[in-house]
Amino acid sequence: LSRIFPRPIRTVFGWVWNFAVVCVLFAVMTLLAFEVRFVRFVIVPIAVITGLIYWIRKTAISGRLGEVTIKTPIVVVGPGEHWPCEISFTPKKTFQINEVSARLLVEEVATAGGGKHKKIHRHTLLDEKTIFFPAEQLIAGEPFSKQLQIPLPDTEAWSLDVDDNKIEWTVDVRIDIPQFPDWSHKTTLQMIPSTFLDDSQTPPTGP
């Protein structure tokens, strides 16, 4: 610059450059300070409140149902089968339930774009609810143990998990308690063609 512009102009350029650097540094510091304040005064309280609500809900449910055990012997299934599971617990109190049910949900999840323009689209392929046990009164100290068989449809919507597309199979087993938080447990299934199941169940043959 010394060969092109005289000294006064070079000085102005220096002032402008220094001012720009100061502005950039100030902007970065402001963003960092805002982020710290945002995390401290917004994110942290929300996380604490959410954790507290979850703990209160879990404590309240266990105070009535006790420890609920659900056994899911298999998660890899084929079309047209019945998915088995077992639910058992011993109530700590005598109370009424509305029902014990299972919701089978199949969703296609597609992701488009990236960064701030990332969008997630969900399309429900199947949504079925099966009620296994209607309203009844549970007696404190009397074990509750039931076998559930969730029917699966004859379909070709196989489980899928690639970069931008998924097909998810989930079963949500729920104990509906009137005027009280429900107990629920979600299991992800892997739906594959029956031929693959047959191959996996066929023992290998030696030479």
Describe what you observe in this structure.
- The chain has helices at residues 7-65, 194-201; strands at residues 69-71, 76-77, 82-89, 95-97, 99-112, 119-133, 136-138, 144-151, 160-161, 165-176, 183-191.
- It contains two helices and eleven strands.
- The model is unreliable at 1-13 and 201-207 (pLDDT under 50).
- A hairpin with a 3-residue loop joins strand 9 and strand 10 (165-176).
- It is flat, with a radius of gyration of 29 Å.
Task: Describe the structure in brief.
With 207 residues, the protein is α+β, with helices and mostly antiparallel strands. Helix content is 32%, strand content 38%.
Compile the SSE list and pairings:
Elements: H1 7-65, E1 69-71, E2 76-77, E3 82-89, E4 95-97, E5 99-112, E6 119-133, E7 136-138, E8 144-151, E9 160-161, E10 165-176, E11 183-191, H2 194-201
Parallel strand pairs: 2-11
Antiparallel strand pairs: 1-3, 3-8, 4-7, 5-6, 5-10, 9-10, 10-11
Keywords, please?
single chain, alpha+beta, 6-stranded mixed beta sheet, 3-stranded antiparallel beta sheet, 32% helix, flat, disordered N terminus, disordered C terminus
